[in-house]
Amino acid sequence: MPRPDLLNPLFKSLKSMKGVGPQLGALFAKFFGAPDGQDAVVLDVLMHMPSGVIDRRAQNGVAYAPVGSIATLKLHIDEHIVPPRNSRAPLRIKAHDETGEITLSFFGARGGWVEKQLPIGEIRYVSGEIGFFGREKQMTHPDYIVEPEKLSSLPMVEPVYPLTHGLSSRALRKVIASALDLVPIIPEWTGKDRRTIMNWPGFSEALHHIHAPQRPTEGDIVSPSRMRLAYDEYLAGQLALSLIRETMVKSSGIARQVTEEITQKVEAALPFALTDGQRLAISDIREDLERPTRMSRLLQGDVGSGKTVVALMAMAMVAEDGGQSALMAPTELLASQHFRTLQPLAEMAGLKVVLMTGKMPAAEKRAALAGLADGSITIAVGTHALFQSGVEFEDLGLTVVDEQHRFGVHQRLALSEKGHKTDLLVMTATPIPRTLVLTHFGDMDVSVLREKPAGRQPIDTATLPISEYERVVGRLASRLAEGAQAYWVCPLVEESEVLDVVAAEDRFADLKNSFGDRVELVHGRMSAAAKQEAMARFSSGEAQILVATTVIEVGVDVPNATIIIIEHAERFGLAQLHQLRGRVGRGSARSACLLLYSEPLSETARQRLEAIRKTDDGFEIAEKDLELRGQGDLLGTRQSGMPGYRIAVPDVHKHLLEMAHDDARAALERNPGLKGPEGEALRALLYIFRKDLAIPLIKAG
After folding, report:
1. Distance (Å, rounded) from C-alpha 67 to C-alpha 82?
2. If we measure between CA atoms, which residue out of 110, 108, 162, 102 comes closest to residue 127?
C-alpha cells in the first residue's frame, strides 16, 4: 500500500522551507516527535491544532477599548520619551486618535528600533492588549505595528498554538502559512451525503479555516472544519484497525475440532459453577476456533470475573484438537500467579503446564523447551520471553495475552506472525468504555464478563485522612489477632524529597516496629526471587501484612487476605484504585478497603475517592475515570501502541467515533483492496492522519 504520489508535498522536510534552518528544523523534529534521525515534515505543522484565537477586529478607538481587551488602533505618533541611560524605566511612545490618548510602553528597548517603527508625526496601526497605568490607557509591547498601507498583513483573527521553548508563535505561524500553500488537491474520502448532512467543508478548506480564519468561530473546536478533521482522524484510526484485523485473520486459520472431552474435565475440576457471562464468552471463543479464520478476540472483565478460567477453557478446546497454547503475562509475578491458578485444574484434566521464567535452572529450562518442541507440554505460561528465539512449539494453536492495554497494535501485528495460523485471545482486567474499545481495539472481536463468580463477597470501602494513622494501626492489630491478613499499599518505593509521601520502605519499617516478623515487603525493584519469597510467606499465612507498591495491582490472589489499606489514595487513578481493591474479596469472608488520603484534597481527587467508595462496578468506574481524566491517559497511550489524538478531543468529538467506525467498515466492505479512486483517497487519509499505522500495514499487506 504505497503512499500516493500526490501527498509528496506534505511529506517534505520542514528544513526545505524558507526560514527553517538546521536549528529550527531540529527543534521542530523534537517538538513533533519525529523518529530519531528524521526531520519533521510539512504535514506535522498542518496537524498542529490551535488552542485558541486572538480576535483583533475591534477598531473602536482608544476611548472605547476596554482595559484587558485586545484592540487594533490607528494612532498618530506624538512623542518619544526615552528613559535615562541605565534606567529600568520603559521607553514610552505618546500617541492619540480621534477619541483619546494612549501610551505605548517598551521595556529594555535598545538600538532605536522602536523609534524607527513609530516615527513622530506618522500614522501607524498597533494591535495588543489594553492596559492602564496611572490615569491613562497604555499598551505594553504591542503584538503588531504596521504602516497603513500594510494593514492587510496584520492578522485580524490570529490562531494561538501550543509552543515549546525556543519556538516563537510568529515563527510557527510563518511556517504554517507556507505549509498551507503546499496542500495538494486530494480526492475526497468522506462521502458527499455525510458532508452535506454535517455541513462540512473539504479537507483543504477545513485546514485553511483553522489555520487562517477570517472569523474566530471558523477554527473553533466545535466548528464544522474542526469537526470534519476530527472525524477524518477517527475514520483513519478505524480504517487502520480494520485493516490490521484483516491482516491478522486473512491467512486462513485452522478450523478446530472441539470434542468437549477435555473441557468437560476442566469444568468438573472447578470449585465453582461457571457464570452465564463465562459460558457466553466460552461459546464466542468456541465459534471462533471452529471457523477456518484466525481468532482475534479481546476478553475484558472486571476484577475477579474469572477471565483466567475462560482462557483455560479456550486452551483446553485447542488441546482437544492437538494444539498447544501459550499464556503471556506482563510480569513474572503475574505469570507465576496464573501458573498457580491453572496448574492444578489443567493437570486434573490431563494437560501438562510449564512456567517459563528467566530464572529457571538450566536443566529445568532444557526439559521445558524439549517438552514444548515435542508437544508433550500442552500449555506454556510466562512473560514475553515465551516468544524469543530458542522457544519452539510443536503446534502453537493459541496465544493468550494478559493485560492487553500494555500490549499495543504493533505488538499484535508482530505476534500474528508467530506460530502457524495461531489464534489470539487477549485479556484485560481494566473495564474499558466503548469509545476506548473502538479506538484501541477496533481490530478485535470483544467478549465482556460483567458478573463475579458466586460466593464473592462485597467489599466495604471507606475513606480516612492520614492523620488517623495511629487509630488505623490499632484497629488493624485487633483484626490480625483474629487471624486476618492485610495489604498495605504505598505509591513510592523510597522516600522522595519532592513528594510528601510515605514510601513503602518507610511504612514497612514503621509497621515492623508494631508487628515484627508478621510484616513483609514487596516492590518492583526487588529481585524476582525476593519478591517470590515475600509473596510465598504472605500466601502461606506466615506473614499477615504485605506492604507493597502497585506491583500487586493485578494477578495477586490470596483468598485469606480481607483487608487492603491504600495510603495516599488521592495519588492513584480510579482504575488503579479499583484494581488494587480487587486484591481482596476473593474468598468467602467479607472484606474491607480503606483509602487513606492527605489533606487538602483537590476537587478531582475528592470525586475519585467518592466514586470508588460508592460503587464496585468496574465499568461504571471506567466511565467516571474517562470523564475525570479524559481519554489520553486512561489506558496509557504509550503502552497501548495507539498515540493520542492530535485533532480529535474525545470529550467534544466522541459522537463522531461511532460514525467513523461504521463508515470505515462500510468502506472496506465496498473496497477490501483499497483499489481505484476511492482506494487512493482512503490510502491518502491513512497517510495523512495515521502514518504511524500506515507503515506497518504496508509491511503486512
Report:
1. 25
2. 102
Where are the extended beta strands (E) located within 513-662?
519-522, 545-548, 561-566, 591-597
pLDDT at 125: 97
Specify the DSSP class assigned to residue 139: E
Give the C-alpha separation, 663 to 669, whole Å.
10
Average of per-residue pLDDT values in the chain:
86
Compute CA distances 243 → 253, 422, 443, whole Å: 17, 18, 8
Burial of 422 (0-12, 13-18, 19+ CB in 10 A): buried
3-state DSSP assignment of residue 379: strand
Burial tier of 599 (Cβ tally within 10 Å: 0-12, 13-18, 19+): exposed
What span, in angstroms and rounded, lies between the C-alpha atoms of 333 and 347?
A: 21
Reading the block at residue 385, the C-alpha cell is 520471553
Beta carbons of 239 and 667 less than 8 angstroms apart:
yes
Nearest to 549 by CA among 570, 567, 562, 528: 567
Query: Looking at the predicted structure, is the pLDDT value of residue 698 above 80?
Result: no
Among 212, 93, 195, 99, CA closest to 145: 93
> What are the respective helix, strand and coil percentages of the chain, to the nearest 5?
45, 15, 35
The residues that bridge with 95 in the sheet, in sequence order, are 77, 102
Say how far apart CA 54 and CA 48 lie, in whole Å. Answer: 17
**Cα–Cα distance for residue pair 345/310, rounded to 1 Å:** 12
In sequence order, which residues have a C-beta less than 8 Å from that of residue 60 and are 6 or more positions away? 71, 99
* Average pLDDT of the residues in 469-484: 92
- Work out the average pLDDT over 510-531: 87
What residues pair up with 460 in beta bridges, in sequence order? Answer: 592
CA separation for the pair 443, 413 (Å, rounded): 11
Lowest average pLDDT, out of 17-21, 348-352, 524-528, 536-540, goes to 524-528
Distance CA 577, CA 290 (A): 39
Q: Does the reported pTM lie above 0.85?
A: no
Give the dihedral of Cα atoms 180, 186, 191, 194; nearest 10 deg. Answer: 0
Within the chain, how many helices (H) and strands (E) appear? 25, 22
Count of Cβ atoms closer than 10 Å to residue 198 Cβ: 14
State residue 189's pLDDT score. Answer: 93
